[in-house]
Design a protein that fits this description.
The protein is elongated. A hairpin with a 2-residue loop joins strand 4 and strand 5. The strands form six sheets. The chain has a five-stranded mixed beta sheet, with no helix packed on it. Strands 16-22-21-18-19 form a five-stranded mixed beta sheet, with no helix packed on it. Strands 1-20-17-15 form a four-stranded mixed beta sheet. Helix content is 7%, strand content 34%. The protein is mainly beta. The two termini are 28 Å apart. The protein folds into two domains: 188 residues, Immunoglobulin-like, CATH 2.60.40.10; 154 residues, no CATH class.
Length: 367
């Protein structure tokens, strides 16, 4: 019943946290009846707690409490190669069709672009292939392969699907790939070579990493000085928005709460998270938020006291939780000054954004 939170609380919680932080300082300085416990260092053994405070966990290891602002913004999609369908294999030469789709010059470099599409089942190409260049007589030009003049911008596994080769001087689409090569066309790069001894590239021989060779005719372009090498890029593909995966599953929750506390003072307690899954719980990429509420009559739906309490868990101090292991967090709840003495239910919810999906609760008497 705590999972649904309306967007109208988005502004309220920031104001609440600011007031809570100020209230905490005032409570400690003015009330004087109960001091806020000093945060325990991560993986340290805290001293024996005073009467009325939450006991230390059996392991004695506690992640300190910190009022961290919650992350209420959904993860933004990143850009990357289109995901490959399950079971997609690497392309071999007979799975591909290719052609020159562009050529241009830059500071004495001739850059030639090849486009690739599929001739059969979907497959993928990846990495930098070996490329040889033949002249018009079919003789190899003595190039050494080197890094490309322009670094690649969209590397990764490029999905290849059946279809036509990209049109010249157009952007590739998902299901197509490109590859750039470049050579030097200015004699200054090879001062020891007779300027008349240039080589005219006529055919590219591209070795596909998974097997086979594709020969692609090269249109007439400025001749090459082989001593400067042949720049070979990587297979590239257009990037698409990649939606973030589901957040990691939440661990089981247990609470250690003092049986009594006082109105208008800080209530320290402990929350232990146990990984009951068969994989480690690692909150590095997306840390969950927690929500704590105090109810006078939770069975009959009384409103929570003190407003909305949503913070980010102190994940940075905790690290991953191994399967079957537990991590204990120190928590502090600010009991409102307007609460009437009596028996209450303290609830702790854990979830992502503002949707709490895992809960624990304990009873505490306020005096």
């Amino acid at each position: 019943m705590f999972a649904d939170r309306n967007a109208r609380f988005a502004d309220a919680y920031y104001l609440l946290m600011a007031r809570a932080a100020i209230g905490l300082v005032l409570l400690v300085l003015v009330a004087g009846c109960q001091q806020l416990p000093a945060p325990a260092s991560a993986l340290s053994t805290p001293p024996a707690p005073p009467s009325g405070q939450a006991p230390a966990p059996p392991s004695g290891q506690v992640v300190p409490w910190t009022p961290l602002a919650p992350n209420l913004a959904p993860p933004a999609p990143t850009l990357g190669p289109a995901p490959l369908p399950p079971g997609t294999l690497a392309c071999q030469a007979n799975d591909l069709v290719a052609d020159v789709i562009g050529s241009n010059g830059a500071t004495g470099h001739v850059i030639t672009s090849f486009g690739f599409a599929g001739s059969g089942a979907a497959c993928y190409v990846e990495g930098s292939p070996s490329v040889g260049i033949l002249d018009s007589k079919g003789s190899p030009i003595a190039f050494r392969q080197r890094a490309p003049y322009f670094p690649p911008t969209h590397p990764g596994r490029a999905l290849i699907q059946p279809g036509a080769v990209p049109a010249p001087y157009t952007e590739t689409k998902v299901g197509q790939a490109s590859l750039n090569i470049d050579w030097i066309s200015q004699p200054e790069a090879c001062p020891q070579v007779d300027p008349t001894q240039r080589a005219q590239p006529a055919t590219a021989v591209i070795a596909i990493p998974a097997g086979g060779i594709i020969e692609v005719p090269i249109p007439l372009e400025p001749a090459a000085y082989a001593c400067a090498g042949l720049g070979v890029g990587v297979f590239e593909t257009p990037y698409v928005p990649i939606q973030p995966g589901p957040p990691p599953p939440l661990p089981a929750i247990s609470m250690q709460v003092p049986s009594t506390s006082h109105v208008g003072q800080a209530l320290p307690y402990l929350v232990t998270l146990t990984d009951d899954k068969n994989q480690p719980t690692d909150f590095t990429s997306q840390c969950p938020n927690y929500e704590e509420e105090l109810f006078a009559d939770i069975v009959h739906g009384s409103p929570p006291l003190g407003g909305n309490h949503i913070y980010a868990l102190n994940c940075g101090e905790a690290g991953p939780i191994q399967p079957g292991a537990s991590v204990t967090f120190q928590m502090v709840f600010l009991v409102p000054v307007g609460a009437a003495p009596g028996k209450y239910t303290l609830t702790f919810g854990l979830g992502y954004l503002n949707a709490m999906t895992s809960f624990a609760q304990a009873v505490v008497t306020l005096r």
